[in-house]
Amino acid sequence: MFAAKRLGKELQKARQKLPPGITLVKAEDLKTWEVDIKVLDSNPIYANQTYRLVFIFSQNYPIEPPEVTFLYVPANTQSSSSSSTALQLQSQTIDLTSEDPKPQSQADNGHRPIPIHPHIYSNGIICLDLLGTAGWSPVQSVESVCMSLQSMLTGNTKNERPEGDREFCASMGPRGKDGWSSKGGWGRRGLKDVRFTYEDDTV
pTM, whole model, 2 decimals? Predict the structure, then answer.
């Protein structure tokens, strides 16, 4: 009951206004939300990229942290084809007599990769104390988590995955329809079963 009330307030606010670089993509219920984030600063590792976050809430939210992971979304080939055709048509209408013709920017093709970061595994799982039971606080929200992840990416200078990325991803197995929940999930273990060690807070 409390989770529904809290999420209802957050959803109402999110639909009205979110900070720059954060977009609510899907919130059809009060269990699973999808949010896109962009790094607004000039970090070359994440230039011109948009990333998809998935929030899965329990009945104990916000006392209990949500499961938050990055989700890989392949490019929409139909959208890409349409965008390419549109760009070709637009290029034909550019005034060639203009001294400085402005090319049209390419439309979003829907591709959402998993960002490269020493604290983000290639399956989208994030090693961040804020998302763990010990580091979580009920004052946090979907918006504040997104802003924290934006900041984490902005300050990163290492174009690399966590040590042991391949072994960790293999131990987790594929993501289930309810994320990596240990109850009914398809993975070999639940995300709540993982005990991360938060050693490096410089990235």
Answer: 0.79
